[in-house]
Each structure stands twice: as structure tokens, then as C-alpha cells.
Specification:
Oligomer: heterodimer
Shape of chain B: globular
Helix content of chain A: 25-40%
Structural class of chain A: alpha/beta
Number of domains of chain B: 1
Radius of gyration of chain A: 18 Å
Helix content of chain B: over 70%
Distance between the termini of chain A: 44 Å
Largest sheet of chain A: 6 strands, mixed
Largest sheet of chain B: none
Number of helices of chain B: 12
Strand content of chain A: 25-35%
Number of strands of chain A: 9
Order of helices and strands of chain B: HHHHHHHHHHHH
Largest interface: A-B, 23 and 20 residues
Structural class of chain B: mainly alpha
Number of helices of chain A: 8
CATH architecture of chain B: Orthogonal Bundle
Number of strands of chain B: 0
Strand content of chain B: under 5%
Distance between the termini of chain B: 37 Å
Chain lengths: 229, 249
């Protein structure tokens, strides 16, 4: 039986209009505590806007109900580091009193080697981990993660996802992540919310392997394994 | 003393201006002070007050137009600074006053000017230090900054107002045409050789102070105007940092 205290987030009739364009239309979904929700959709579907709405960064209509005491950590898809001469240690020390070494340990980055490096010279994978560390500074119980593997080499994706899963279990976090990757949806999430300005699918993630669901989302079946001989 | 204070504060605030890619804005922005400066000369009140008033009003207008139109500060300042310069030049009747306004004259500085400049510079540095990290975070990701409860627009406005203060202070030494140098070049020099934000901001401030103090000393020795010599000193520092950067590559 459904218990309302099982849910950390309930979104009802959410609509967002920006610059006279409807970006999200009547979106409804719930997120159970301690689970991972994957948000999938084509470019322009409103995924990032959904996250910004959950963070109260854009105006919206409808209801967003977070359970009681919620602390949200946010990892954006892109940041503009460029040639800003800021070290990893300075970035993580944005909040005074931050234990930088612990933050880096939590994301499996060697403290000494990385903390004095400039953000701008980190590899894609290292930067992603530093951003996760930054999001974890305030000990959030919810993590919003926009495209976990953007800018990460193919070999570096899996370790980040495995690390995320372990953090979720050890810190009892709820994770919402935006992804284009069917493999991530299938392997690393519990539920799937597919968006294309409105909700096109909401259910268990393993359903993404169902050809009928894939045709609904993509218009055709998506191949994820080796072709059968 | 006034030179060290003005140079240090301009260098420190300029470190953020360079990161925000607003270095040329700083240069153009200083020209906006000229009509206010002209009013001070015409109606015999301290030119610093006239310059600051013009910069203050302009900063608010630029900030507001930037938020509303989403145009870059560069575009907005670019549209207005030549007009301000032309109006200021037309308003200043005396050629000598005009030259002093455009190029500065540190020999005309009074004790009151010095005390005021030192106090303003210290206040500007302290206030900027309080919002430094917030401004940098806003540059890295406005969404991250807002999600941490930072009001990016209010922080930007406070920063522009502090720049107005510092630019108005620097005008006395190097004039409206060259004060943009103080908020751009010391920071650019520091950026060549800094590996972290603390070193970068401290070096920007130090290079600003060094540029002004050495430039003024040289101008006294060579009996030439202070403004241009400050620029020559500062560019020499810049050239050294470029050489150091190339050497470490």
C-alpha cells in the first residue's frame, strides 16, 4: 500500500512557460526516498528546465512538494571554468570550514594531487567528480545530476556511475539524473520519467528495455546489445 | 600614498573585471565620468564627487539595462561612452583643466584627497573581498550560485558600484582616458603567473600598486605627466609576466 511518507518529492500539474513558449506541460510524477529517477528525453524536451524548476530557479505553475527537511545538491551539465585561475581546493572551500580532503575522498579523487590543480585543466571525469564533491559539501539527501557523463571519456563513465550508486547507498540519498543513455537508465536507475515537454512515460526503469516502450519514446527500437546471430 | 591606495584597489577589483571579460568595459566606463567631472569644474565642487556621481548613475543604468535586455555590459557601455566623452569635453571650457581631466595630475592632490582615497580604497577592497567568491561562483555557473542562495544580480550591482568608486579615485592620478588601464592590465599581468584565485587577486592588487607608485616616481624624475608613466610602468610589469609565462610553458 502506498504510504505518502515513502515519497520525497511529489510534482503535480507542473507547467513552465518561458519567453512565451510552453516548455513543460502538466507534468506529474513522484519520487520514492532512496531511489534513483532517470529523466530521459530528446533535446529541448524540458529536462534541464524541470531541474531548474525543482530548484526554484524558474517560475512555474502547479505544485512541487518536497518531503519535510530536504537538502538538495545540484550538479549542472556544464560550467564555465575557462581560464579562471581557481583551484579545486578554492572551489570546494566556497563554504568556509569545508573539509576538502574528505570531499575529494568521497568521490575517489586523490586529495594531494588534485586539490591544488586549476579547475580548468582537469579531465572531464575529474571535473565531474569535483562537481559531485561540491554538491555533497552540505550533506544533501537529494542529488540532482544533469547528464552525469557529459565530457567524460567512454572508459571513465562506468566508474562515476558506480561511485554514484555507492554514495546513494552509503548516504541514503535520492538521486534524480538526466541522461540520454539507455544503458544508464537500465543499469543505474529505479524509475524512469520520459519527457517531451509533457510526460510520455513514467514507470520502472527496466521497462526501457521493452521494445514497445522504446518505440513510444524514440519512434523505433533502440539497440543496446550485440546483434544476435 | 594616494597612488598606492588607488592602484591596489583598482588592481583588486580589476581582477574580477578581467575574469568577467569586462576589461574594455572598465576602460570605456571611466569615460562616462567626464561629464560629472566637468560639472565639478564648472560649479566648483570636488571633481571626485562629480565623477563618482556620474559613474554611480551610469552603473545603475548599465546594470538595469543588462538585466532587462540581456545585452552584455560591453555592448551597453559601448553605446554610451563616446557620447559621454564628447559631452564632457564640450563642457570643460579650460584647456588645462581638460588635459588634467583626461590624463590626471597627481601633483595637484591635496591631503584631503589622499585621506579620502585611502579610506575609499580600503572600504572598496574589504567589501569586494566579502563578495569575491560569490562573484566568481556566479561566473562559473549562475545556476549553482543561485541554488546556493546567492543573489547574482545584487552582487553584480554592488560590484559595479564599487568599481565606480575606485575608478573615480583613480581619475585624479591617471585621468579618464587612462584609468581603464588600472582595472585591466595589473590583473592581466597577475593572470599570466597565477595558479589560484588567492595569488591572482593579491598579485593584481600588488601590480596595481607597483604600477602607480613606480610610474609616479618616474614621472617626478623625468618631469613628465604621471598618467602616461603609470601606464608605461604597468605595461613593463605585464611584459615581464608574459616572459615568465612563456618560460614556464
Amino acid at each position: 500500500m502506498e504510504n505518502s511518507s515513502d515519497y520525497i518529492l511529489k510534482v503535480s500539474n507542473l507547467s513552465v512557460t518561458l519567453q512565451n513558449q510552453k516548455i513543460l506541460d502538466n507534468v506529474n510524477f513522484k519520487v520514492e526516498k532512496g531511489t534513483t529517477l532517470a529523466v530521459l528525453g530528446p533535446n529541448g524536451a524540458g529536462k534541464t528546465v524541470l531541474f531548474k524548476t525543482l530548484l526554484n530557479l524558474v517560475p512555474y505553475e502547479g505544485k512541487i512538494e518536497w518531503e519535510g527537511k530536504v537538502k538538495i545538491g545540484y550538479v549542472p551539465q556544464n560550467i564555465a571554468v575557462g581560464d579562471i585561475p581557481i583551484s579545486v581546493k578554492e572551489f570546494l572551500s566556497f563554504r568556509d570550514g569545508t573539509d576538502v580532503a574528505s570531499c575529494l575522498d568521497a568521490v575517489r579523487l586523490e586529495g594531494k594531487d588534485v586539490s591544488d590543480k586549476r579547475l580548468g585543466i582537469l579531465s572531464g571525469g575529474q571535473l565531474r567528480r569535483v562537481l559531485i564533491a561540491w554538491a555533497l559539501v552540505d550533506n544533501p539527501n537529494v542529488l540532482l545530476f544533469d547528464e552525469p557523463t557529459t565530457g567524460v571519456d567512454i572508459g571513465g563513465e562506468e566508474p562515476i556511475l558506480v561511485m554514484l550508486n555507492e554514495l546513494k547507498k552509503s548516504k541514503k540519498m535520492t538521486i534524480l539524473l538526466i541522461t540520454h543513455d539507455v544503458h544508464i537508465v537500465n543499469e543505474y536507475s529505479d524509475h524512469l520519467l520520459a519527457l517531451n515537454r509533457c510526460v510520455t512515460f513514467f514507470g520502472e526503469s527496466k521497462e526501457i528495455m521493452n521494445p514497445t516502450v522504446q518505440r513510444t519514446l524514440y519512434g523505433e527500437t533502440v539497440c543496446v546489445g550485440a546483434p544476435q546471430r | 600614498m594616494i597612488g598606492v591606495a588607488a592602484g591596489a584597489s583598482a588592481g583588486y577589483l580589476g581582477s574580477l573585471m578581467v575574469l568577467k571579460k569586462m576589461a574594455l568595459v572598465g576602460d570605456a566606463f571611466s569615460h562616462v565620468a567626464l561629464p560629472g567631472l566637468a560639472l565639478g569644474l564648472l560649479f566648483h565642487f570636488p571633481i571626485f564627487i562629480g565623477a563618482f556621481a556620474a559613474l554611480f548613475v551610469s552603473a545603475i543604468i548599465i546594470w538595469y539595462l543588462g538585466r532587462v535586455t540581456k545585452l552584455s555590459y560591453e555592448s551597453i557601455v559601448g553605446a554610451t561612452f563616446t557620447l559621454a566623452l564628447a559631452i564632457g569635453i564640450l563642457m570643460i571650457p579650460d584647456r588645462f583643466d581638460l588635459l588634467e581631466s583626461l590624463f590626471g595630475d597627481i601633483t595637484n592632490v591635496t591631503l584631503l584627497d589622499t585621506v579620502a582615497a585611502v579610506i575609499i580604497s580600503i572600504v572598496a577592497i574589504l567589501l569586494t573581498k566579502m563578495i569575491y567568491k560569490k562573484l566568481v561562483l556566479g561566473m562559473i555557473s549562475e545556476d549553482l550560485a543561485i541554488s546556493k542562495g546567492i543573489s547574482v544580480s545584487k552582487t553584480d550591482l554592488l560590484y559595479l558600484l564599487l568599481v565606480s568608486l575606485v575608478v573615480a579615485t583613480g581619475i585624479k592620478i591617471v585621468g579618464t582616458l587612462l584609468v581603464g588601464f588600472l582595472v585591466a592590465v595589473p590583473a592581466a599581468s597577475a593572470k599570466n603567473i597565477s595558479s589560484n584565485l588567492l595569488k591572482y587577486s593579491m598579485m593584481s592588487s600588488a601590480f596595481g600598486a607597483i604600477s602607480v607608485s613606480s610610474g609616479v616616481l618616474l614621472s617626478n624624475y623625468l618631469n613628465v605627466q604621471s598618467g602616461p608613466m603609470v601606464v608605461v610602468s604597468g605595461i613593463t610589469v605585464f611584459a615581464v609576466t608574459v616572459a615568465l609565462r612563456l618560460k614556464t610553458k
